[in-house]
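Internal tracking record. Fields below are filled automatically when a chain is submitted to the structure queue. Please do not edit lines marked as system-generated. If the sequence contains nonstandard residues, flag them in the REMARKS field before resubmitting.
Queue: standard
Priority: normal
Entity type: single polypeptide chain
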Amino acid sequence: MKFYYLLFVVFLCSFSTYAVEDKLYMVQQDREIFDRYINYISADDYTSQEVIMATSMFFLNTPYVAATLEKEPEGLVVNLRELDCTTFVETVLSLSKTVVDGKPSFESFCENLKQFRYRNSIIDGYTSRLHYTTDWIFENTQKGLVKDVTKEIGGDPLSIDLFFMSRNADKYKLLKDNPALIADMAAVEKSVNDRSHYFISKDRIDACGEGIKDGDMICFVTSIAGLDVSHVGIARWESGRLTFVHASSTQKKVVVQSGTLQEYAKSVSKNSGILVVRPQF
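SYSTEM-GENERATED OUTPUT FOLLOWS
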């Protein structure tokens, strides 16, 4: 079965929805998983929330693998075989939108993934990718793809002071190799810092839980200096109990968290609370 893992030659994407300069990174198995997903899902009898939940469950036990997006030159990475927390959420939302929109083609999925992952839905180098979660939320809110509902369900003001990537460029190969990009990243960080933000503290998650719905994106706020969010997942209610689905770095696969959302948040020493983001398709 080695054929499945032979990397396609990076090529100029010929999909009509793509600009001529866009590049696509994938292997044959990714297309096969997409086809299997389309056979598995149906929007006919599902609400958008139900499509998102069914899609998240489709990926249960998919291996956790970090840093799958770090390609040069920058291009759209489609990897349905290996997911980290961010690519899991982006993939679930992009596939779900593809189904809900009634356009279940691989080309439509790729276009949706590009919309979620890149500033202005345009691939224009490393800094066009939405690296910080709060920036991701803002940009995708502007596109009408999501809505930050944290404040309306009981959130409190949150001070954000991003600087981690620009001041630690040596930790990011593409910044280290392209120092001219550091100033661009610092400008992104400043723009995010200047916005208003809200969060629900980890002690108040249960109290605000009624405002959280199946399929909401849960973003875990970190106290690590210079960062905003350290983990993301998808909210899930089970028998009146609020938990979440995520690509777990400790369990090395996509799982439904065994404990509650609040229990998980309180178990992570550097977690301050959560942001709650609702898909709008």
